[in-house]
Amino acid sequence: MTSKKVTKRDVIKLLNQWRQEFAVFVPSIESGVATMARWEGKDTSFLDWYRNTVIPPKANFLPPMEEMFRFRKDREGYNIELPPDGEKQLIFGIRPCDARALAIIDANFRDLYQDPYYLSRRNSAVLVGLGCTNPHDSCFCTSLGVSPGESADVDLMLTDIGDEFLLEPISAAGKELIARSRGLKEVTKDDETRAKEIKETSYNKVTRKINAEGIGAKLLAGFDDQDYWEKVAAKCISCGICTLLCPTCYCFDINDELTKQQGTRFRSWDSCAFPIYTKMPMENPRQEKWRRVRQKVCHKFGFYPTNFNVIACTGCGRCIRLCPVNWDITQVLESVPLIETKRGKASNTL
Amino acid sequence: MEQRLRSKTRALLEQGKVDWIIGFEPGSLKFTTTPLITKDKNDTDRLVINPFIVNNLANFLTQVKGRVGIVVKGCDSRSVVSLIQDNKVAREDLVILGIPCTGVIDLSKIEKLVGKDRDELNDIAREGDKVIIRVNGKKKEFPTTQTLFDNCLACELPTPQEYDILLGEPSSPIANPAAQEGIKKLKQMTPEQRWIFWEGELSRCIRCYACRNVCPACFCQRCFVEETEPQWVFPAPRWQDNLIFQITRNIHVAGRCTDCGECERACPVNIPLRSLTREMYDIVGELFQFKAGMDKDAPPLMTHYEEKEAEDFFR
Amino acid sequence: MTTTNIRPSKFLAQDNVYLPHIAVIERIIEETPGIRTLHFNFKDGKLKKEFSFESGQFGEYSIFGIGEAPFCISSSPTRRHHLEFTAQRVGRVTNALHRLGVGAEIGFRGPYGNSFPLDFLKDKNLVFVGGGIGLAPLRSLIWNVIDNRDKYKNIALVYGARSPADLCFKYDLDAWGKDKTIKFVTTVDRGDASWTGRVGVVPKILEEVAPSAKNAVAIVCGPPIMIRFTFPVLEKLGFTPEQMLTTLEKRMKCGIGKCGRCNIGNIYVCRDGPVFSYEQIKSFVSSEY
């Protein structure tokens, strides 16, 4: 099926249609903080200011806090109840970097055991991507195989061609969604040419670059260089901003809460930057800050690729924009020393 | 000022008077600086002093071992003194390079005034009592006071009192009442309205703990939120538990917080944390006539006992 | 290397990998003042009969409302009357565990992880080296081996603890001491008035016992410091890194390789371990074990 288009003025009608079927999430701003929030049906003014959200759309699939199950004790013992099924979500305006990030962390939630909470949300959701026309100076998606204007990881891809959006179906779900949406216009050859130009312009607007080629091997070769990692970690303050707001970070904590004879098991966002992340009663293998910083960098650019063949970073730049001390991963990656070690191997073998 | 700073810090390292230099260097984004923590004298050439030196570098004093040459503005110098009062760092292990501060530019305020994001601006320059912003070939001017951080407007000590080297002419407090807008609004609310206000704000909190980690007064090896026996605060970002975290942290830093404003600046979801910390700061001043970080020989407020205590149950 | 393939647990409650099964505590043994072994069985009759696991695997045990913690299954798969696990009181969940009584209900998820490679151990001489509560995962394997005695050659066991009061599984130690097919040596770091056995740290006693490395595999489990000093002793005795097995411990939450925290490099101790050979450990990119 070919693309269609919709005027920016009519986007609200489209969202209203989709709202009959899905819980529609759109970029929203509150106290200067952009997030994907439930669309209340009022307007599409977000189209005026939207660049990207502070909280990444991973929050719609792996929420900051999530109930796993409830338990209740009666005379016969414990009963466990699952929370009610979630709603079908439609995320409108997800950027290619964030959509790719979801595809990247899917691997973790599918591997060996299927994570029911994440996957049920993921399988029922529809992603309507929106190509960037104004990337931040902190974005470096193009160095990681992501294009700001295109995405294979969404169901429907929108390109801003002036007063209108071009809608390209990417997946079967996207095709079906277009087929049952009303108010869409036919696309002309000029529209398609214009879209192509805009995508190229956006690509070239991304000025921050890293060389991701062989980065895993480089990092792992220098893994034991404590002096280097101490220098890298010096100004880090071990908060969780870079990891919690990273669209490809997924670490979580599990805790119980009890009120008399009933309670809940929750999971919530956690970070390898926190000192107690790996703490055991008698020892903590990452007590020192440099070890934790090393873990974060090497996991994203070394360990995850070893396991799943993909770097766990899409260059969205949130970590650079929001770090309180302007710790910049692109600077770190560009400064990894080339170290020849006896080790030779770049990964663990089993 | 910058040249003098660079040559002084290089000399300090060369002569072995300090092991570390902690200062500011240009950041990787426009209008940003980042902490420079180094033992290498050649790195000192990168040190800068400009309207964007926002970090409170005293935070790093509890992390590095050895003697430190540290660059501080007025607020940061009070944090240093507060750490000396708490016995976390010794005065003789420090060479304090003081910068008389005329206020740090708050990029969020500039973004609101100009209606553009910071990476869309071409230049921000400070010229006396005006800030000149260049964007898209056009020039926009604003009074400086409209562009500075709230805590800079409320700052009581812009020029460090405790220093070894003062890099410039002393500056005076700006004392602009606009700084207290947030707190004034809150004080005009009823308790029920305030409850709703904080529910709204703290629902955005994701428990990144940047507010805690950026604070020089928070130097506990194990924070109370990390305790499991007992679990003082639920470890997930439920707004009520976020509130408990903030209230408790404020009580823990009372008497040691110098209103440097870093907690509010670091918060990635714009929670107006300074409304809590500044209010606590003012309460401490009112009840105990005490301001943190003013006198390095003064005992810390909350851990000090005098025979003439105000409360009966102490006597 | 020769660890068993990773196979996911097929015992899922309500098809959800995070949901525990309900189990009932049947017996509690106070091994030492801070360590207890709990015997349990699943409440559901069908699961009680069908549940199976292999030596070395662990489970995530829930105290509802307090939390979940990983412990190895310390009973042997050859003795399925009930299941056992052993826990030392060190934190929130274990404190709650130590307050449970017989009849209390807990949750169980598992079995998780890999297991001791029985094929690799077949027809070999086995040297078990244990310290303190580290005997728990070894114990599952030792009884497993004894119950299939003709599949293995000589068995030697060197087990020690800080003091006689800290020795765990004293009832097993009695049984193994009486078993003529086991060369059994216990030791304590510090004896007491009634102690007549050897005195000395486990690595030192191991060196004195000097088991032969010929056609042998050593299985070591104990506090990290004991393991770190035992490996060099075994190397001195001629054991190659492939001939040394151990189980590693990490802080765990999900137990199934999702939450991220138990990693050493790209390996997750909960899904690729906890059984590893010293050869594998040496190739770990990280020395954080």
What's the architecture of the largest domain in chain C in CATH terms?
3-Layer(aba) Sandwich
What is the CA-CA span between the terminal residues of chain C?
19 Å
| Terminal residue distance of chain B | 52 Å
Helix count of chain B? 10
Instruction: Estimate nothing, just give the exact number of structural domains of chain C.
Output: 2
Strand content of chain C: 25-35%
Share in helix of chain C: 10-25%
Shape of chain C: globular
Number of strand segments of chain C? 15
Mean pLDDT of chain C: 93
- Specify the overall morphology of chain B: globular
Computed CA radius of gyration of chain C, to the nearest angstrom: 18 Å
Tally of DSSP helical segments of chain C: 9
Rg over alpha carbons of chain B? 20 Å
Assembly type of the chains comes to: heterotrimer
Identify the most extensive interface between protein chains: A-C, 58 and 55 residues
Structural class of chain B: alpha/beta
Provide the CATH top-level class of the largest domain in chain C: Alpha Beta
- What's the main sheet of chain C like? 7 strands, mixed
| Strand fraction of chain B | 5-15%
Helical amount of chain B:
25-40%
Helices, strands, pairings?
The complex is a heterotrimer of chains A (350), B (315) and C (289).
Chain A: E1 4-7, H1 11-18, E2 23-30, E3 33-38, H2 46-49, E4 65-74, E5 77-81, E6 89-94, H3 96-110, H4 116-124, E7 126-130, E8 156-160, E9 164-169, H5 172-179, E10 185-186, H6 189-205, H7 215-221, H8 226-233, H9 241-244, E11 252-259, E12 262-269, H10 289-308, H11 318-322, H12 329-334
Parallel strand pairs in A: 2-6, 6-7, 7-8
Antiparallel strand pairs in A: 1-9, 1-10, 2-3, 4-5, 4-12, 8-9, 11-12
Helix pairs in contact in A: 7-10, 8-10
Chain B: H1 2-14, E1 20-26, E2 33-38, E3 68-72, H2 74-85, E4 94-98, H3 107-114, E5 123-127, E6 130-135, E7 138-143, H4 150-153, E8 165-166, H5 181-187, H6 191-202, H7 210-213, H8 239-253, H9 262-266, H10 274-288
Parallel strand pairs in B: 1-3, 3-4, 4-8
Antiparallel strand pairs in B: 1-2, 5-6, 6-7
Helix pairs in contact in B: 6-8
Chain C: E1 21-32, E2 35-42, H1 45-50, E3 58-63, E4 67-72, E5 83-88, H2 92-97, E6 105-112, H3 118-121, E7 125-131, H4 135-146, E8 155-161, H5 170-178, E9 182-188, E10 198-199, H6 202-209, E11 216-221, H7 224-236, E12 244-247, E13 263-264, E14 267-268, H8 269-272, E15 275-277, H9 278-283
Parallel strand pairs in C: 7-8, 7-11, 8-9, 9-10, 11-12
Antiparallel strand pairs in C: 1-2, 1-6, 2-5, 3-4, 3-6, 12-15, 13-14
